[in-house]
Amino acid sequence: MIKHKALLTLFLSLFAVSGLFAAKPVPPAKKAAPPAPAVITGLTAVDMPYDAGNAAILKWAVNPADAADTFYVVYVSSLEAGGWLEADRFVSSAKTGKDVELPFWAWDGSSLEHAVKVELNNTYGDTLPGSVFQFKVAAEKNKQVIAESMPVSVTPVGNWFRLDRMNNLVLLITIIVIFFWAVSHAKRKGLFIRRIAGLDAIDEAIGRATEMGKPIFYVPGIGSMSSISTIASAFILGEVSKKVAQYDSQIKVPHYDPVVMTVCKEVVKQSYMEAGRPDSYREDINQFVSADQFSYAASVDGMISREKPAACFYMGYFMAESLLLAEVGATSGAIQIAGTDVEHQLPFFFTACDYTLIGEELYAAGAYLSREPMLVSALKVQDFGKLFVMISVFFGMICVVLGAKFGWSAFVSSVLNLFQNF
What we know:
It is a single chain. Helix 3 (166-188) crosses helix 11, helix 4 packs across helix 5 and helix 7 packs parallel to helix 8 (321-331). The chain starts with a helix and ends with a helix. Strands 1, 4, 5, 7, 8 and 9 form a six-stranded mixed β-sheet that branches. Strands 12-11-10-13-14-15 form a six-stranded parallel β-sheet, with helices on both faces. With 422 residues, it is of the alpha/beta class. The chain has helices at 2-20, 120-124, 166-188, 197-212, 228-247, 258-274, 293-307, 321-331, 346-352, 360-370, 373-406, 409-420; strands at residues 38-40, 44-47, 55-61, 70-77, 85-91, 113-119, 133-141, 144-149, 152-154, 216-221, 251-255, 286-288, 311-317, 335-340, 355-358. It has three domains: 38-154, Immunoglobulins (Immunoglobulin-like); 163-188 and 376-420; 197-371, MTH777-like (Rossmann fold, 3-Layer(aba) Sandwich).
């Protein structure tokens, strides 16, 4: 019995000692809190210059340590606190001061700072100048915010003067000065206009019709009065009618459009008055034929076939009816003078007519025939403008090539911006 008690005591002692050395339970580890986002410093918001007050520009320094997968997110709010809306998102290497679309004389951007234009009307619709907007910028990596700026505010305002369009103002002033110089020179000495054979032949055609006692047909085409070629045709009709009135010949003008007919009636009447022959004017000189393209062509062809005119003028906007008209006129033995700015109809006029005005010759015809100083001056100013554009493009190409060759990236960008804004 004593022996069993001793064994029991020994067993209990060993059990107590083992309990002292048993592993204590380890409390569960707490999850590490994400690090607080860093602060983006140096963020400024300014009103977008040279606009109507609907945009702002945010600027902050470029961080060279930004990884390639870092994105910047721009937020905007119209409230004093909260209400943030995402306005833009871009990779950290994009949108620097050099990327702002303003010409070099109106914006001095740097590649060392981000510059983001925020179009407020895209987010809030029509914004009223004077409203205050809050902005902040956050940097994200793997969809986690790693940096954020403090909010900044700006009040967009409209600008009275657009410095970015200064080149257009300079160009306009230059054109006005050249125009008035050309008008003055045209009144004193006249301006040279190269000879256009088709217009020089007008006197011959009208004289031939007068000698033969046959009428002259003037076809203004199928264009509306809003067409430039139809307007030019009305100018030519005025000069032709004036010569017809002076020669006491006959002219007939069949029309496709009733509005064009009304305008041409006044043009012809004024021409007869300027020629001193208002008594020779007849209301049936201008007549409406048809507003259907091929019905019009068939009717005019019938008139030409029956009356056998001595001269036919086709001036204005023409389509598929051009060859139908010109071919019938050629078979009648008439002198034919055509002019249009529809380039794919020119081959038909070349084939069937004696003289053809090509493209801009049609626009210049009014000034060429009338020698009116204002019209001639406008023509000369257009020529000067074309010469300026050609010279500018030539030197612009040289500057761009030299800039690309020697690495003048800023110079190349300036040249491209200059030509883009003209």
